[in-house]
Every structure is written in structure tokens, then in C-alpha cells.
Amino acid sequence: GPAVFPGYLPASGVPDPFAPDGYLKTGDILEIAGDELEYLHYVDRSKDMVVRGGMKISAAEIETLVAGHPKVADVAVVGYPDEVLGERACVIVVPRPGTRVTLAEIVEFLRGIGVATFKLPERLELRDELPRNPVGKILKRDLREELRTGAP
Fold this sequence. Notes:
Distance between the termini: 44 Å
Order of helices and strands: EEEEHEEHEH
Strand content: 25-35%
Strand order of the largest sheet: 5-6-7
Radius of gyration: 18 Å
Helix content: 10-25%
Shape: globular
Structural class: alpha+beta
């Protein structure tokens, strides 16, 4: 709450970091987890979302699930522009050595574990590796730009 964070200067132009009920808006997405709903599980940052037709899809959620596919070594999910829906979901995969994976296989895998239809990716890009910064974080802005322009 407000006791933890002193706030921004009124003339700074930065939006108020507090919700109307006084809680600090961190931008994190958490879920109540555990057999007895006894703890919070960090899911993602709220800005790492694909917004398809007004429906918000957590990239981290889909990435975690796709990473469980036996043919997937590494994965990123990003949105790409769509004139009708705003964005569509693209799954970018580094296949395990000696394997090939298709969009149909990934969609079937996700359906098999009960993923809602609106969260299913509509495009698959295969890569030898994903772009990363020096500390190992995937550079999603680079992937989004590649999808937007069609140039790696």
C-alpha cells in the first residue's frame, strides 16, 4: 500500500501507481495456487500479453505449456498484427535435435491438456535459437519486429 511506496511527483506525468483501493499496481500476474489455495504463484508480467479480439492471452502461460511438448527445446509466444482481431498468437519454437514439429501437433497437444480455444496459437515459426540478451532473457521485441516486418 501507500506506506511501502512514497508515490510520484504530481508534475512527473507518470500515472498513479496505486489502484483506487490503495494497492500498489505491480504489473505482475499471480494466481492463487496450492491444494488448499495457500500461496500465490507468479505467472507473468501483465504487459506480456497477446490481445486477440479483446481476449487477453498470457504468453508465459502458453510458453510453459508448449515447453512440455516432447519435440520442443525452447519456445516464445508473441503477438503479431491482425487487421480484424488486433493481434494473433504466434508460437516460436526451437525443436529438439532430430525432430520436426508442426503447428497442428502443438495445437493438438494444447487441446489435449485442456487449453481454451481462444488461447491456441495460429502461427508457428521454427528457429535454430531464440534471440537473448546478455542475461539470457528472450528478446521478444526482436521477435515481434521480425513478425511485423517479415525480416529476421
